[in-house]
Amino acid sequence: MKVTISGLEFGYSSSPVLKDVNLEVNGPQLISIIGPNGVGKSTLIHCINKILSPTKGVVMINGEDVNGISIKEMAKKVGYVPYATSDAFPLSVVDTVLMGRHPHSGWKSLDHDLDVVYSTLKLINIEHLAMRSFDELSAGQHQKVMLARGLVQEPEVLLLDEPTSNLDIKHQMEVTRILRNLSQEKGILIIMISHDLNIAAKYSDNMVMLSNGSIYAVGTPKEVLTKENIKAVYGVDSEIIESHGRPHIIMLDSEFDDVSEPLPPESFVSGRKVVEEHMERGTRVRDIIEEQS
Amino acid sequence: MESKEYEIEKQEYHAGVVSKILFIIACIVVLVVVTTLSCSVGTGYGFLETFGILWDHITGVELEFRSPEWWADYYVWNNVVPGVVMALVAGAGLALAGTVMQSMMENPLADPYTTGISSGACLGAVSAIIMGFSFATVASGMGIVVNAFIGALIPAVIVIMLVRYVGNSPSTMILIGTALSFFFNSMVTLIMITADAADLQSAFLWQIGSVSKAAWSDLPLMVAMVIISSILVQAVSTKLNIMSLGENSAKSLGLDVSQFRMLCLILVSILIASIISFTGVIGFIGLVAPHMVRYIVGGDNKFVVPGSILVGAIVLVIADVISRSLYVFGNVPIGIVMSFIGAPVFLYLIVRRKSQKEVF
Amino acid sequence: MAEYSNSKEEYYRLARRKRMFAVVCMVLTVVAFFASLTVGFYKVSIGEAIGIISDHLHGTISDIQADSIIFNSRLPIAIFAIIAGAALSAGGAVMQTILRNPLADPYTMGISSGASLGATIAIIMGTSLWAGFSNSEFIVVMAFLFSLIPVGVILLFSIKRKTTSTKIILIGIAVMYMFSAIVSLLMVTASEDTLSEIYAWRVGTLALVSWGDILIPLVGTVGCLTLLMVSNRRINVLMSGANCAQSLGVDPKRTTLIQMVIISVMTAVVVSFCGTIGFIGLVGPHVARIFVGSESKMLIPASAAFGSVFLLVANSIASVSGPYGLPVGVVSAIIGCPLFIFILIKMRRNAWK
């Protein structure tokens, strides 16, 4: 599958958001779109799946202009996992994910649809939540359910808007890894917006860096995440080290590193053991700490 | 010297403040004009003549007893002015209440009746009119007012008592208010449907909202409440600003959100009760006036509060002008005129809204 | 795939339990139906009532008065109650789903104010204008025509321009306010007897329903309910918001508008005959939702079934209250209100704001 964007422009009446965006993405892979806040990442994604109409330019999926593709046809090709869920109805998780089968389901397909739903829930390790009510779940669980709903669409292209922002480290890695593996196993082109540069760098096949409404850099994580690019786009100094063939960004702050004031001794934190010792011995906690260090 | 550093920015800030103050002064002027206009409608006196009559009376000019000027003054001052003043004061009070409600409930579609006050007042009034059931032993005119006042406070009291158990959030209050409105309105329906036709009509006309039967004796309570409320609300206008940041942010800025919300509710309830017991349920002004003002001066309640008070008064007085100009065609109470003005304005406000926020 | 057969079994079992609620309601409807035939100032037992009906159907009428009361009055009223209850409650369920608002009901888009306006005009004009129509027929026709005007306005506003579903809702509310203003104006200028009549119409009553009033509501309700059920998956998808709905292949604006038109027609067809009976459309879906959840395939029939029972019971109560009976709208409000408050108290735990 192939997504081609040429000459894309989008703006609200007062301000342009995207200017002259040109991009060609081919074949199944995991791509991260990165860039500072407000640069137009969500807007770009919404232009791909027709939620927004660009003011200029063309988006093509497999060589076909999306303007000519009906909404129903789009739903079979392109899946979407939103940033924040606005679902708040007391619907079970299974029913919520089942909605994702809508583009494919017919009169008698409930059984097959349920198979797809359950296998997807199992894939992202939430099958134990199946019968729970959606509005009782935590934010992280919400995100996983939304991801499942996007996956059961069995799309060729999957768009995700910050799919891991509410998850803890372990689940961030887990979900991103699953996405990458899925892209190869099922042949899906997965495009995700990411705020965590290191996680994106670790798992993505390619990255797209946006700046000022246009594409600043495109390529593998190593090619895109360079000191110069990060400085130019984010305005931040950094040092790039390599871990298992992937770049890892270490942030530098000239106004803090090696120049910040050390903490005065009156400000400290103690674990329980020290406090108990102090109470027993009747001495000052500070002396105990000095003793131990 | 640090004070020199931000001269330009400070100048810009002050310029913004000055323009808003100018707006308020402009509103006061418009209010005076419109009030005079309203006093002149239907009296047969021209605009300037009416202004002269009012000015003379206010400045205490001695008039020769039973001269034409004396009659003019007597007529205008006793028959026309009370109604106009009631419209002015009611408009100011309702708009003020609406501003407070919208900040307090963090919901731009809130109005003073959201917590069910209007339905309670209707129940009180209707039970007095139709069933003769009254809390007061005074003559029938005051009986209705007293009933309506007490009736209006019942939903407020229920809301205040219930939030102790179910929590103080705006959405809870709105839901309780809605339920109470449904309940009281069904009671009203029950009473009205079993009444005979004449009583039904009186009850119906009371609810619609009118200032036509106003007398000077009706005004003191309303005027006092509106003035006191205006002063109080203006004093806490910065707190209202903080409320609209949301519960957590407000708390972290040092505002006791639950307590403040409760105080606002109590104030609004008494204010509204003191207005609608006399006028009936005049809608829209509490909802729409704050939005109109915000469109011009922005969202800072320090300016929105006085702006709403003035704009509310202006709009309702204009409605009064229209209402009495149409008198030749039949009785068009001010409440109806207000809904004809308010509904299109509401529609316009919606069509202009750019945000996608769910407002329910 | 046998792999998930356990989980799927659980899912199917739950679905069956939900269907039970609708079945139970339908059984209750039948019971209430026959019970309602016996309720009223003319006392009769169920057996006697059935006997009178079968006599009529066989052409052997023994007691003309009994026949007139049971067959020509109570029977059509009971049938209409089933139809109207189902229409209002199911309409409310779909409205609440597509508008994503628990306080929505079938009147939210201005149908009630439109119908009120039509009926008010008809009552005020009286029979003088329309020769050949009886007074009540005229009211029905006017109420129906006018109830569709708000929907027409909304369609006009939304079809050409780029409006979001949120805006559509708010436009509907604004239109409702405008129509209410006109109705209030008319009511203020009416004489006291006319006002009484208008007020009674707005509260809603089934007392004047006769056999001639059954066909159109029946056809309309059955047809529209079928249409709603056919689109149940699309309605479900709308629950997740406009953007998600579109990404799942459902055009949010078009679907919202189409469903609104269907509900409007169904409601209009019923309300023109009985007035704007309140609460059923609001409370019925909530009660059904407690038992069957929010999924439309279950919620629509469950709401319809519950609505029928509710209206039958309310009507029976209404017909024996007070010296002349009460309009059913008052009873539905008095029962519906505490029920609604109870549901709200239960609901406060949910994320619905």
Any overview of this molecule?
The complex is a heterotrimer of chains A (293), B (360) and C (353). In chain A, 35% of the residues lie in helices and 26% in strands. Chain A has helices at 41-48, 71-77, 93-98, 110-123, 139-151, 169-185, 197-203, 221-224, 227-234, 272-281, 285-292; strands at residues 2-11, 16-26, 29-34, 56-61, 64-65, 78-81, 157-161, 189-193, 206-211, 214-219, 237-243, 246-252. With 360 residues, chain B is an all-alpha fold. In chain B, 75% of the residues lie in helices and 0% in strands. Chain B has helices at residues 7-40, 47-58, 68-104, 117-131, 140-166, 170-193, 197-208, 219-235, 237-243, 247-252, 257-279, 285-297, 301-325, 334-352. The radius of gyration of chain B is 22 Å and the shape is globular. Chain C is mostly helical and 353 residues long. Helices cover 76% and strands 0% of the residues of chain C. Chain C is built from 15 helices and no strands. The longest helix of chain C has 36 residues, at 64-99. Residues 127-133 of chain C have low confidence and may be disordered. Chains in contact: A-C, B-C.
How would you summarize the topology of this molecule?
The complex is a heterotrimer of chains A (293), B (360) and C (353).
Chain A: E1 2-11, E2 16-26, E3 29-34, H1 41-48, E4 56-61, E5 64-65, H2 71-77, E6 78-81, H3 93-98, H4 110-123, H5 139-151, E7 157-161, H6 169-185, E8 189-193, H7 197-203, E9 206-211, E10 214-219, H8 221-224, H9 227-234, E11 237-243, E12 246-252, H10 272-281, H11 285-292
Parallel strand pairs in A: 3-8, 3-9, 6-7, 7-8
Antiparallel strand pairs in A: 1-2, 1-4, 4-5, 9-10, 11-12
Chain B: H1 7-40, H2 47-58, H3 68-104, H4 117-131, H5 140-166, H6 170-193, H7 197-208, H8 219-235, H9 237-243, H10 247-252, H11 257-279, H12 285-297, H13 301-325, H14 334-352
Helix pairs in contact in B: 1-2, 1-3, 1-13, 2-3, 3-8, 3-11, 3-12, 3-13, 4-5, 4-6, 4-7, 4-11, 5-6, 5-11, 8-11, 12-13, 12-14, 13-14
Chain C: H1 5-38, H2 46-58, H3 64-99, H4 111-125, H5 135-147, H6 149-160, H7 165-189, H8 192-203, H9 215-230, H10 232-238, H11 242-247, H12 252-274, H13 280-292, H14 296-319, H15 328-347
Helix pairs in contact in C: 1-3, 1-14, 2-3, 3-9, 3-12, 3-13, 3-14, 4-5, 4-7, 4-8, 4-12, 5-12, 6-7, 9-12, 13-14, 13-15, 14-15
